[in-house]
Write a structure and sequence with these properties.
alpha+beta, seven-stranded antiparallel sheet, six-stranded antiparallel sheet, 24% helix, globular, binds FE2/S2 (inorganic) cluster, binds fe (iii) ion
Length: 373
């Protein structure tokens, strides 16, 4: 019998130095989803998002363009906006000394300090690249020119296939937030395999019978989807879905589940009537925040009797099952005994992720070494 491929070594899941590298090499160089365009529809509407510890402010300017900035005042560094979302009329005002910035990030006012003293041109907010795909807002913190968003997404297998469901007009019916005591790679690894499904998700395997075998996609590809149990069009507690099919969904596709990881750390799970998007936001070497948006056909959400509870409750239970095993794994990988684990064949996607992750990390490390020499 051949030796099995090894997982990452234990410290990769908890060492602060590895986490610092993950922030620089992965999270500050990739396109990271920070929310939905429905939250920044009008000029001055804003959201904030945490990108591996960096607070990013996203808004829409007067010209209807999305804009993203570090949530940091150029005067003496004060945090500019508090909370997750809000709306300003035409400017952001720093709570510290009341400097103001226009919606496109230009410095506008510096009360009690002469205009000639502080150059307006040189002290605009620090900008961040921003773009949208299918109604999702993405930012990229790279200092050099980032690749086009869609080109980057094309590198995550099966993601562009999901465009056929036309997710851009979907509306959020519910959002959940979970703080999980596990490294982000443990959460992603768990998403990338279904070997745990028969043990951890007894209710889920009843709805997606293929998961009983411990693989996500039997042919190894996501574009065909996996069949739901007879008569189902939703991964939910009730058998009959009360929501409309997603706009681009054919009758045949409606009875399937489709899912993809958007590298590095976003999950998109789609079945007939709902799309569930989960953002994994690292909050430290051994912790994450998981933000999950439950998205539905806009006409379903607009109905007076709209009720997402059957979908939400079922999937929240699945999420809690996942989060519990991730926290359990985190405890074990911090043992000094855990030099590494092993990947049997059904963990192949997890192994693939590790290889890609390591190649980006190594490339970043050698670039920074070169730059230092
Ligand atoms: Fe923002 Fe002074 S730190 S105005
Ligand atoms: Fe799971």
């Amino acid at each position: 019998m051949n030796a099995l491929p090894a997982t990452l070594p234990g410290p990769d899941y908890h060492d602060p130095a590895v986490y610092a590298l993950d922030r620089e090499a992965i999270f500050f160089r990739s396109w990271i989803c920070v929310g939905r365009t429905e939250d920044v529809r009008e000029a001055g509407q804003w959201i904030t998002a945490d990108v591996a510890g960096e607070s990013i402010l996203v808004t829409r300017d007067q010209e209807d363009s999305l804009r993203a900035f570090y949530n940091v005042c150029r005067h003496r560094g004060s945090r500019l906006c508090d909370g997750d979302s809000g709306q300003v009329k035409s400017a952001f005002r720093c709570p510290y000394h009341a400097w103001t910035y226009t919606l496109d990030g230009k410095l506008r006012g510096t009360p009690h300090v002469g205009r000639e003293e502080v150059s307006r041109e040189d002290h605009g907010l620090w900008t961040v690249a921003v773009d949208e795909w299918q109604g999702f807002v993405f930012v990229n913190l790279r200092r050099d020119d980032p690749p086009a968003l869609r080109d980057a997404l094309a590198e995550s297998e099966g993601v562009l296939d999901l465009e056929r469901f036309d997710l851009s007009g979907l509306r959020r019916g519910f959002r959940s937030v979970h703080e999980v005591q596990a490294n982000w790679k443990i959460i992603v690894a768990n998403y990338n395999e279904c070997l745990h499904c028969p043990t951890v998700h007894p209710e889920l395997v009843d709805i997606v019978p293929a998961f009983r075998s411990g693989v996500v996609f039997e042919d190894g590809r996501s574009d065909g989807g996996v069949s739901l149990a007879e008569g189902r069009r939703s991964v939910a507690g009730d058998h009959e879905s009360r929501h409309l099919l997603l706009p681009g969904m054919t009758e045949e596709e409606a009875s399937s589940y489709f899912g993809s990881l958007l590298f590095p750390a976003m999950f998109l799970d789609i079945s007939g009537c709902e799309a569930i998007a989960t953002l994994v936001q690292p909050t430290g070497p051994t912790s994450c925040r998981l933000i999950t948006d439950y998205l539905f056909h806009p006409d379903s959400v607009a109905r007076a009797d709209f009720d997402p509870s059957a979908v939400v409750e079922f999937n929240e239970r699945v999420a809690e099952q996942d989060n519990a095993v991730c926290e359990r794994a985190q405890k074990g990988v911090m043992s000094r005994a855990f030099t590494h684990g092993v990947y049997p064949e059904k963990d192949a996607e997890v192994y693939k992720f590790d290889l890609h992750y390591k190649s980006l990390r190594d490339a970043y490390r050698s670039r920074s070494q070169e730059a230092a020499e």
